[in-house]
Amino acid sequence: MEVLEASHLTKLFGRLEAIKDVSFKVGRGEILGIIGPNGAGKTTLLNVLAGYLRCDAGRVFFSGTDISKVRPDQIARLGFIRTFQRPRFVGELTALENLMTVPIDQKGESWLWSLRKGTWQDFENSLKKQCDQLLEELGLAKKANEKCRNLSFGEIKLLNLGFCLLSDAPLVALDEPVAGMAPHMRPIAARILLEKHPGRSYLIIEHDMDFLRKVADRVLFISQGNLLVEGPPDDVLCSRTVLEAFLGSEESDGQEYRVKY
Amino acid sequence: MEYWMMIGCIFGLYALLAISLNMVAGEMGLMSLCHAAFFGMGAYTAALLVTKLGISPWLSSLLSPFFVAAMAAMLAIPLSRINGDFFAIATFGLALVFFSVILHWTSLTGGAFGMVVDLAPHGTGLARNPSKILLLPICFIVLGFSLITRRWRRSPLGRVLNTIREDQTLAGSLGKRVGTQRLISFTVSASIAGLAGVIYLWIVGIVDPSGFGVMDSVMLLAMVIVGGAGSNRGSIAGAAIVVIIPELLRSVGLTGQAAANLRQIIFGILLYLVLLYRPKGLLGRLHVGVEQRT
Questions:
Q1: Nearest chain B residue (CA) to A47
Q2: What ipTM was assigned to the predicted interfaces of this complex?
Q3: A 225-254 residues with CB < 8 A to B
Q4: Does any domain span residue B45?
Q5: CATH 3.40.50.300 domain residues, chain A
Q6: For the whole prediction, is pTM greater than 0.80?
Q7: Tens digits of per-residue pLDDT, B228-243?
Q8: Per the CB < 8 Å rule, is A111 touching B157?
């Protein structure tokens, strides 16, 4: 069964059709890339899927449940989490504490149990170990006890990726996970994404085509709210529609940004 | 001596109010302007339960904070989606409504003259000199709630509240129940204020609308800001300043209306200076009030 199924989604902003009758599926363990020019409706699509925007027509099913009218936090609790294009963080907390906030329904998060330290201390300690290790893998070990407001954009981006890696949600949507990230950090992101949680499904919006070629099983091309092309990354990226609508011409395929994975 | 015990009790009450307001204004970054209303609601509820329903003073004192909690929980539902300046405006409105009710519903509340309520049995030490007997319990209550709120702050719950404070969208995206946590925090904070109201009634033996108006809520918020949000020490320091200023004025021979006005002016200037030079307050950890990231 599919993890996520979008059926005939339409989203209007006034008279502007941001998404027009888009249908697709994400299989279990599949990594699905979404590409398209700026303003194509990629982030809007993600916002509709994850409950941040209410769609005007169509349905979204997550593991068979209709989630088109469910609140974002409830969708996250069901096991579909996302990151944001502009990474989010708690500046007042350290990188480690930011990560440790991720697991849902920790015992120490209850107003009553939090008063009895003994009931959550063990979990807290093991969580701390786990997060320290994750920060190590992300190359952020040195910043563990640094307040997040002092971290660079790329480091915050990695930390947001860390949120997803720490969570055990079966479906994760990433909105431009490596955009704005320093080129040498991108391979780290790609490697970790592929290695951790092998059975998990991903939905990845990204402009970095090399990144997508490396990680995605299948790619959707969206332009002006329409789902135009769908298929394996190399086929989609080389299709005529995509080259014309998105890249302009073959030569402008962002040579200067190309990173070796 | 009795006088200083009274001052001590008042200081304890202010500290309790500041600590509880800090849960909302400091930890959650929500500028609540109706905290004095919950303080008054606690006092009035206890007074009315005794005078109108004839319930025993001890039981009334116990019930009153729970009634305040129930009211706060009801009000928290419409407030749970409002942030920033709008939250301040909405709670400002609630404070006005509460003040109008206690001032104008004369048949119930005694209007501007208020009600005289003898909670303690006649002839006992508690009736003759309440501040002497209540000073120690008040200290314990303040200490107790300081420890409890500190534990909350330093537990995983504190992390969640901090996340909600800075970025509700992030908190929601991680599956945290933003609305519920805000509701609980607002309710607990209000019921502690209600408890302070009950204690106030025990000490003073009279309730009238002065002390529970919008300006009093502003004063409480100013205490948290000057003392420093996000820390109990800050809240207690803010309370201390509010209590000490009139005493300093008295020591230079100023009393009555002039002192009351001067107190507000001095505190206003202090607030201004703190916001200008030390926006986190004297002992604070956080700014009061935050703008949610969009």
A1: B173
A2: 0.87
A3: none
A4: yes
A5: 4-89+169-257
A6: yes
A7: 888 999 999 999 998 8
A8: yes
